[in-house]
Amino acid sequence: MPWKNGGGETMEIAVEPPGASLAAFGWRISLAQVTASGPFSGFPGIDRTLSILHGQGVELAVEGHSPVTLGCNSEPFSFAGDPATFATLVGGPVTDLNVMTRRGVHRHSMERHRDVGPWELRLRAAITGIVVADGIVEISCAGQNATLNALDSALIDQASTMVALSTTKPADIILIEID
């Protein structure tokens, strides 16, 4: 779908409520291919977290804050969707992962886990997203099994359950929690 400001395109992974517009979502997870420097869409009342999955990176300038350079090895960066924000590409296009939650209704966290091998994860949040940044991950949860390749994701809405992750070689994953 087009970005809110028309400057690019995003692939929506999940949104609550299902089918919600950009003006009405409670939370949203998406991937974007950023091919040119430019302004971010404004999202008043929204909290955002961004992680670079592929590419050299971006310098992110959020009004009122010092610029931050984000790359594939950076931790996810959280910021409000209200202030003017500008991204300058560092060495070419990037693929980013974006999580947005409506302030006062939902809250979220995003963690990058590098070189993950076998891992048993107890889910804590109402919604847990697992996005594979690099590698192949076998996932098993509540009797369901799936193979996730790079840029694949799983969304689990069962808090207090266990998820088993296994890999044939270390993988990089992004863990998203939404309450």
Overall radius of gyration: 16 Å
| CATH architectural group of the largest domain | Sandwich
CATH superfamily of the largest domain: Jelly Rolls
What structural category do the secondary elements indicate? mainly beta
Q: Write down the CATH topology of the largest domain.
A: Jelly Rolls
Please give the count of helices. Answer: 0
The count of domains is 2
Number of extended strands: 17
How would you characterize this protein structure?
By secondary structure, the chain is mostly beta strands. The protein has two domains: 9-102, Jelly Rolls (Sandwich); 108-178, Sandwich (Jelly Rolls). Helices cover 0% and strands 56% of the residues. It contains no helices and 17 strands. It has strands at 9-16, 27-34, 38-39, 46-54, 58-62, 68-70, 77-80, 85-89, 94-102, 108-116, 119-122, 127-134, 137-141, 144-148, 153-156, 162-166, 171-178. It has a five-stranded antiparallel sheet, with no helix packed on it. A four-stranded antiparallel sheet has the order 3-8-5-6, with no helix packed on it. A hairpin with a 5-residue loop joins strand 5 and strand 6. The chain is globular. The relative contact order is 0.20.
